[in-house]
């Protein structure tokens, strides 16, 4: 049977305790054992199907983990209390003092800060490079390198990683390829392209209701078992455990992800094309002008499109702020960080989610002050949205109405 991420979610079947159509929520932090021997074996990790303590695992968290593993095509997965709570233990599990990480220089601000400012305390050093250049990636490998880290579609510049090419390098040098797939769930399946570990912030598209913070690590059974090991597992010991009530809630939202992603992508593609025609500097992987348009195409499941994220550059932070405030006033979306909500969300990454990155580095990677990042919502009538956004842009002289009228 061929691998189709959304089918794999749909084909899972769990019943609740009383034949409910949803699995029962495990509302316990600890579990009883009929025999002391089984308790001992569970500590040792040899008693399948037994639960010990909910920081280790819980039935509700296992259901959600299995669904996400099915989506990503990995052996298994473990859910965490945030995206950062997924990323940080993965790095800490794979690296020891003296090790080296190669990371894309355009990544989520929190991940950047962790690798730049936090892991050096443990003598784990990171080279931040242009991940789209495979020769630079390979040239950055040292004898201490353990991990190649990047996002399939990067935040906020929407650079696209050549996952197959990176996996090839990782295999040849015996490194682990870790991919953050938060921006492209269902569209791209990094594990199927050779990634060893796939992480997500579930806070974004996957949960999709901006009501919770959550994360997941998808990988081999061996790696997930290592993370959960009571003696030296980074998930178990650092303790970013998801609450069962929350994982039950995320699982229910996951079921509509395929429909939501299609609408996010349709709407984003519509706006990106219009904005580009209007003469705005627009970045969207679905545009032919995007430098990695063909690469994204070669990796994607067509149906889910190029995702819901796009950026425009309006020249200055003042213009960006004015435009975002006006769009919010017209109820076209919210001036807010995060993504994947039913409403459009916009923010200026230079002064918000990427402010951890120093000015010089932001300039070098092309992260300009006038950049606005949009997470396009599920608007039923995107043409109306476009017309209203255009009015805002014309009013603020961001857009010259003659350009699109002539074009
Ligand atoms: C938001 C985000 C994270 C961090 O996730 P949290 O759930 O906020 O901890 C990591 N990576 C990417 C790409 C993100 O957008």
Total domains, how many?
2
What is the average of the pLDDT values?
Answer: 94
Low-confidence stretches: none
Q: Give the CA-CA distance, first to last residue.
A: 47 Å
Tell me the series of helices and strands, N- to C-terminal.
HHHEHEHEHEHEEEHHHHEHEHEEHEHH
Structural class by secondary-structure content: alpha/beta
DSSP helical segment count: 16
Shape: globular
Helix content: 25-40%
Radius of gyration using CA atoms only: 22 Å
CATH architecture of the largest domain: 3-Layer(aba) Sandwich
Could you say which small molecules are bound to this protein? pyridoxal-5'-phosphate
> What is the name of the CATH topology of the largest domain?
Aspartate Aminotransferase, domain 2
Number of distinct beta strands: 12
- Strand percent estimate: 5-15%
CATH class of the largest domain: Alpha Beta
Name of the CATH homologous superfamily of the largest domain: Type I PLP-dependent aspartate aminotransferase-like (Major domain)
| Largest sheet geometry | 7 strands, mixed
Widest sheet: strand ordering: 1-7-6-5-4-2-3
């Amino acid at each position: 049977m061929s691998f189709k991420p959304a089918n794999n979610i749909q084909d899972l079947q769990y019943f609740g305790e009383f034949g409910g159509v949803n699995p029962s929520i495990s509302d316990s932090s600890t579990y009883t054992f009929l025999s002391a021997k089984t308790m001992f074996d569970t500590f040792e990790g040899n008693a399948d199907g037994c639960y010990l303590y909910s920081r280790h695992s819980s039935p509700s968290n296992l259901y959600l983990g299995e669904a996400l593993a099915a989506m990503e095509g990995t052996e298994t997965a473990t859910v965490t209390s945030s995206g950062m709570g997924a990323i940080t233990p993965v790095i800490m599990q794979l690296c020891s003092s003296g090790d080296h990480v190669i990371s894309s220089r355009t990544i989520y601000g929190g991940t950047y800060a962790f690798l730049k400012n936090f892991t050096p305390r443990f003598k784990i050093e990171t080279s931040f490079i242009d991940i789209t250049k495979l020769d630079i990636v390979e040239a950055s490998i040292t004898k201490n390198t353990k991990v190649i880290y990047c996002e399939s579609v990067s935040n906020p510049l929407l650079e696209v990683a050549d996952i197959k090419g990176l996996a090839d390098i990782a295999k040849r040098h015996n490194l682990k390829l870790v991919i953050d797939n938060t921006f492209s769930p269902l569209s791209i399946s990094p594990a199927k392209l050779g990634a060893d570990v796939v992480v997500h912030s579930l806070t974004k598209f996957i949960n999709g209701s901006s009501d919770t913070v959550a994360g997941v690590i998808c990988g081999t059974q061996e790696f997930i078992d290592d993370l959960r090991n009571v003696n030296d597992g980074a998930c178990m010991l650092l303790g970013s455990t998801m609450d069962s009530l929350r994982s039950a809630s995320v699982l229910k939202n996951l079921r509509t992800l395929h429909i939501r992603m299609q609408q996010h992508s349709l709407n984003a593609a519509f706006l990106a094309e219009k904005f580009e025609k209007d003469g705005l500097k627009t970045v969207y992987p679905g545009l032919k002008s995007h430098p990695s348009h063909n690469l994204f195409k070669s990796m994607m499941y067509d149906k889910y499109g190029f995702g819901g994220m796009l950026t425009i550059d309006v020249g200055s932070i003042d213009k960006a702020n004015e435009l975002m405030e006006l769009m919010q006033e017209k109820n076209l979306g919210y001036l807010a960080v995060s993504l994947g909500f039913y409403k459009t969300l916009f923010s200026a990454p230079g002064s918000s989610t990427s402010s951890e990155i120093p000015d010089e580095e932001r300039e070098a990677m092309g992260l300009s002050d006038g950049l606005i990042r949009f997470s396009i919502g599920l608007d039923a009538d995107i043409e109306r949205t476009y017309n209203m956004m255009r009015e805002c842009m014309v009013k603020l002289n961001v857009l010259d109405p003659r350009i699109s009228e002539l074009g």
